[in-house]
Amino acid sequence: MTETIFEKKKTGTEYAVRLLGFLCPLIYFASYLTRKDYSIVMDAVISAEGITEKAAGLVETMGVISYCVGQIVSGILGDRFKPQKLIMCGLSVTVLCNIAMPFAPADLRGAIWFVNGFAQSMLWPPLVRIMASVMDKKKYNTVAANVNAAGITGTIFIYITSSLIWLKLFNSWKYTFFTSALITAAILVCWIFGFSRIDKGIVSGFDNKKKDGETKAKGKLTPKLLLGSGFVFIALAIIAQGALRDGITDWVPTLLRNTFEIPSNYAILYAVAIPILGVISMKLVGFASNKWVKEELNGSIVIFVFAAALCGGLWMIYKNNQYLTVIIAALIVGCMHAVNFFLVCVVPAKFEKYGIVATMSGIINSLTYIGTSVAVAGFPSLIKDGDWGSCIFVWAVISVIGAVLCLAAVKNWKKFKE
User: Fold this and answer.
1) Sorting pLDDT into bands at 50, 70 and 90, what band is 114?
2) Higher confidence at residue 92 or residue 164?
3) Containing H/E element for 254?
4) Cα 232 to chain center, whole Å?
5) Cα(100)–Cα(107) distance, integer angstroms
6) Percentages of the chain per state (helix, strand, coil), in multiples of 5
């Protein structure tokens, strides 16, 4: 019989890398299930309970704020404590929060989702630290791309199960949270059991202990390190990609409904093309980074410029064809997923030698959601009498700015890596 990945305990880095390559994407799949489910069923909650859009949106806002701030906190903790334990804790709390949501009165859901946001923030920085500590560059790129693709797949999964099963057949948004919690609990068991199969000598590599006869550098983040590496420019570019990635994703259904006067449910259904293309883009960029793209900033520059060109094309045709509008918008978001891979996945791994990879990962991911918050709140103000032309023009400008910022960081970043 063929031996499964969990069947027999083995030793060695190769087995640990193979096992983590299976477990890490599962964690991010679970993360998106239990973080995106509320936003997916929010309209159903409003309809079923008669609460206002503002009250329902406040719950989501609480989760985003907590998640953004928690990224930095969990990043610092991830460099000082066992990252696998932080992930276990985060998953456990998010399962409880998702179970509690259907039972909680409306005025308590914001507090529960705030706790959930912080629990979610305990997943990504420790994951990056584990992968950067155990995997070589090629394997890291492949697994990091798979992790992000798994997260987007989780979004697609929870959308389909919610809209086509729980809401359509049972007319209940509550089952969505139970589904997310149940699947995440199963993944938590896999995580705990999987780590028990990894040799303790390998685990010590990311437990701040001696590794191969050497002591890892103690984590210390200094202004000199950030300025000397060109990270300030990279940070601004990360905010730009976050604004475009999530801002466009969130507002495309409204663009379609306003421009073509199609029903809201069809607009949302068309917009599912965006996360689907996001999965494809993550797989492609992971492959390309191992084959052709050796410099993450150069790759980001090219993609930002291409996205700017796509925004220009969208600006010219968005009133004429709803299907072409969706396709181009999905391509722009796909480009931002690719930039996200280079700047949010690859960049923090370069700080592993300083022992601050989790800290940097937390800071970087929080920057992404600063961009998200600004875009989700700010893009609607650019719409004049239902005309999205000015908003799409700003998308193009942000893309160009992202490319310029990456270009400004190239020289210092190259020196930093050397």
Assistant:
1) very high
2) 92
3) helix 231-260
4) 21
5) 13
6) 85, 0, 15
CATH architecture assigned to 217-418:
Up-down Bundle (1.20)
With CA atoms as reference, report the closest residue to 341 among 291, 374, 300, 398: 300
Alpha-carbon span 151 to 279, nearest angstrom:
9
Q: What is the pLDDT of residue 3?
A: 45
Instruction: Give residues with Cβ within 8 angstroms of 404, minimum separation 6.
Output: none
pTM summary value: 0.78
Show the beta-strand stretches assigned E in 169-256. none
Question: What pLDDT shows up at residue 9?
Answer: 46
* Number of Cβ atoms within 10 Å of the Cβ of 12: 12
Q: Where are the domains positioned within the chain?
A: 10-213, 217-418
Contacts of 320 (CB under 8 A, 6+ apart): none
Half-sphere exposure of residue 142: CA atoms within 13 angstroms, side-chain side: 12
Q: What average pLDDT does range 409-416 have in this prediction? A: 93
Radius of gyration of the chain (CA): 21
Q: Residues 394, 398, 401, 405: what is their CA dihedral angle, to the nearest 10 degrees?
A: 160
Q: What is the pLDDT of residue 269?
A: 66
Dihedral over Cα of 286, 290, 293, 297: its sign = positive
User: At a CB cut-off of 8 Å and minimum separation 6, what does 221 contact?
Assistant: 354, 356, 359, 360
> Which of the four pLDDT bands, split at 50, 70 and 90, describes residue 112?
very high
| Token pair for 171 | 């007319």
What average pLDDT does the segment 28-56 reach?
81
Q: Name the packing angle between helices 53-78 and 124-134 (round to 10°).
A: 30
Give me the CATH topology for the region 10-213: Growth Hormone; Chain: A; (1.20.1250)
Tell me the mean pLDDT in the region 367-384: 82
Rounded to a whole number, what is the largest CA-CA distance in the chain?
Answer: 66
In three-state secondary structure terms, 384 is strand
Q: Do domains 10-213 and 217-418 have the same CATH topology?
A: yes
SS3 211: strand
Question: Rounded CA gap, 347 and 357, in Å?
Answer: 9
Tokens standing for 120? Answer: 């979610």
State pLDDT tens for residues 184-221.
Answer: 999 999 999 988 888 666 666 665 543 444 444 555 77
| Residue 327: CA count within 13 A, CB half-sphere | 6
